[in-house]
Design goal:
The protein has a five-stranded antiparallel sheet, with helices on both faces. The chain is of the alpha+beta class. The protein is built from seven helices and five strands. 58% of the residues lie in helices and 14% in strands. The N terminus is likely disordered. It starts with a helix and ends with a helix. A hairpin with a 2-residue loop joins β4 and β5. 24% of the residues are buried.
Length: 191
């Protein structure tokens, strides 16, 4: 029993725990489902990051609604096949962490862009938005895109301005008339 326990501890905590075929299929299925519904994806090389830094990246991802997964490139290529992110396939080399924006277009880009400012070891390799590759240099521009709620509030603000101006225009003659009568009344009272 002690030997089995020691062996279990060694294999479960060793760096390279091989997945069996059914576990690989589950991982591919999971990533494929996320990729088929995601709006954008970023693959970044994470070589040299510590476990604490990767944990911080995952914590930030949860806060932004981004799905993050470290997956072998061979499995990732199978998972993104027949999705909008199949275009990423030729660029997948080296140890990569994948970030998929589930809700907002710029979430994954924001996650990677903000994290790489503090951790220079995280290097974006490939960015895809709605089935098209985007130059990695434009990551900060994609990260700056507003969230859905921010975009709606900006649109409502733009839609509200002409209505407010129209109302001010309609009220302006009445306001001028009231001001003129008030000024005339004050003049009569003074004389």
């Amino acid at each position: 029993y002690v030997d089995n326990y020691t062996e279990w501890v060694y294999t479960s905590w060793s760096i390279e725990v091989a997945l069996n075929i059914s576990e690989k299929k589950d991982v591919v299925k999971e990533v494929s489902e996320i990729a088929s519904s995601a709006q954008a994806a970023v693959a970044a090389e994470y070589r040299g990051l510590t476990v604490q830094e990767l944990s911080e990246l995952r914590r930030n991802a949860r806060n932004l609604g981004v799905y993050v997964k470290v997956i072998k490139n061979s499995l990732a290529k199978i998972a993104i096949k027949d999705t909008n992110f199949e275009c990423m396939d030729p660029s997948l080399e080296g140890p990569l962490i994948f970030a998929f924006s589930k809700e907002d277009l710029g979430s994954a880009a924001k996650l990677v862009n903000d994290f790489k400012k503090e951790n220079k070891l995280l290097k974006p390799v490939v960015v895809a938005v709605n089935g098209e590759l985007v130059d990695v240099d434009k990551l900060s521009q994609i990260a700056a895109l507003p969230t859905k709620d921010q975009a709606i509030s900006m649109l409502m603000s733009v839609m509200k301005q002409p209505v407010e101006k129209f109302v001010r225009t309609l009220v302006a003659p009445n306001t001028k008339l009231v001001q003129t009568i008030s000024a005339y009344k004050v003049k009569l009272e003074q004389s």
